[in-house]
Amino acid sequence: MTAEAPSPSQALKSRQFGRRLLVGLFLLALFSWLALRPPPASDSRLIAREFLGMGTLLSVSVYRDADQDTAAAEGAIDAVEALLTDYERRWSAWGDGELGALNRALTEGKTVDIPESMRPLFSAAARYGRASGGRFDVRLGQLVEVWGFDDEAHFRSEPPPAAAVARAVAGLQAAPPLPDSARQYGPAQDLRFDFGAIAKGDAVDQVVVHLREAGYPNVIVNAGGNLRAAGVRGARAWRIGIRHPRPTSQHPLLATLEIQGDEAVVTSGDYERWFEYQGRRYHHLLDPRSGMPASSLQAVTVVADTAALADAASTALFVAGAEDWRDVAAALGLDRVLVIDRSGKVQATPALAARLSYADGIVAAVAEPAAPP
Amino acid sequence: MTRGDLLAVAVAAILVGMLYARYWQPSVVADSFEVRSGGELIGRYSLAGNQLLPVNGRIGETLLEVRDGRVRFRSAPCRNQVCVHSGWLAHGGDVAACLPNRVSIRLIGDSRNALDGLSY
User: Fold this and answer.
1) A76, A159, B14, B84: which is deepest, by most CB within 10 A?
2) Do B107 and A231 form a contact (C-beta atoms < 8 A)?
């Protein structure tokens, strides 16, 4: 776009034109290639599988090394599917596995022996329960049943009678606490164990460890939104989306988070299992102390080293609510927390805020966590 | 300006427009989705165009709706309608499922920008 050269000779003019034409053609070719080149073929080293289990959608993605073959990775995922099916049977509160048997024995007024294989998770549940001041409690099975959140088939369209809720809460308060390294529990006739707020996380942890031992350190395991990502996805980090609790077409996601290394991300929200009755939302995150759904938050996301902790903690923080979540986070040793309160206000702790990419238009505050207890 | 300059400006403008059209879109947008029933892959469908897609599941027919590059569970035979409440999905890596009917969908996008997992 230069001004015309002052009276140049015809030869010079045509040389200039030739040069410009050459540069123009080169740029034309370059831009055309950039605009029209086909998108890269989907990555063949990523092997992803989904299956339904544990009352949710389970997905396992393995990013294999270049020298590992696809069939072997598929085999490893088959083994994971079997592992999860077995895990679900063992930890289902009302099934024919170990926890189901334990619950039935409690109903009969017996003192139950906690099998050795189940003690680590019982112990973790006891620790998290105590640290959270009882906001997370695996002994609330009876309450979950009263509300009908235990099974699709029991789903209610109105809240249970207040007397039934009060009875379940009283049963819980009268029952013995769960000691840290319990070998036995009971008698507690009105009590049922429900590991629904920690078992999915624990199962995810077991799958990640299993795959690592099988030679697959780069994986992402997701049990209904309770996920743990380990390693990397080839040349880049794993990219995790955090769903908006009130999604719209502009804001299906609240934020995205990159993970390389090994971290769990678990969200608890009031939008997962719920019904509306007379304009009020009743959801599955029950406060074991009142017997009612906790109502001051829409969602809590916890990032932690294990999915079992993140799972239990997201429930505990949700129940703790807008007033107390910082204290409970400190008591559980968490520093990466994202909270959306009832009015839609978004807050994140500094350690997580620094790593989140919020969706366009999301305004978030940084919330200093409480001092460790 | 010479005629060559004008030509260069015009070509550059057209190319910028093409690049804009091609790349100016949400970075994690999906272009297709996979449908599973009972864990088995039923098919992979494009998000382009508008259509209603009935899928047979364990307890009946789930109806998926594709519109404007997004997909949703429009209706389902289940009682609590969790899948219908999931709303429209448009991002690579997004998932939704109707558990009672054992029907699930997963959105697939450009692997460079897609999400690998969703916490919900």
Assistant:
1) A76
2) no
CA A21 to chain B, closest CA, distance in angstroms equals 8
Which contiguous run of DSSP H or E holds residue A311?
helix A307-331
Nearest alpha-carbon partner for B97 in A128, A311, A55, A118? A55
Name the 3-class secondary structure at A345.
coil
- CB neighbourhood size of A22 (10 A): 10
Closest residue to A239, CB basis, from B2, B86, B115 = B115
Q: SS3 for A61? A: strand
Which whole-number Å values give the CA distances from A220 to A106, A232, B40, in the listed order?
37, 9, 21
Task: Round to whole Å and give the CA distance between A240 and A131.
Answer: 28
With contact defined as beta carbons under 8 Å apart, do B18 and A34 qualify?
no
Instruction: Write down the pTM of the prediction.
Output: 0.80
Residues of B in contact with A275 (CB under 8 A): 80
Q: Are strands B117-119 and A238-243 parallel, antiparallel or unpaired?
A: parallel
Q: Which comes out higher in pLDDT, residue A336 or A15?
A: A336
Max mean pLDDT range (A31-40, A125-134, A274-283): A125-134
Residues in B touching A44 (Cβ below 8 Å): none
Which residue from A299, A122, A301 is spatially nearest to A198, judged by alpha carbons?
A122
- Return residues 74-103 of B near A (CB < 8 Å): 78-80, 82, 85-91, 93-95, 97, 99-100, 102
**Cβ-proximal residues to A293 (8 Å cutoff; 6+ apart), any chain:** A270, A274, A281, A282, A283, A284, A285, A286, A287
Tally A–B CB contacts below 8 A: 141
DSSP chain B: --HHHHHHHHHHHHHHHHHHHHH-S-TTBEEEEEEEETTEEEEEEESSS-EEEEEE-SSSEEEEEEETTEEEEEE-SSSS-HHHHT--B-BTT-EEEETTTTEEEEEEE-TTTS-SEEE-
What are the start-end ranges of the H helices in A149-217?
A: 162-174, 199-213
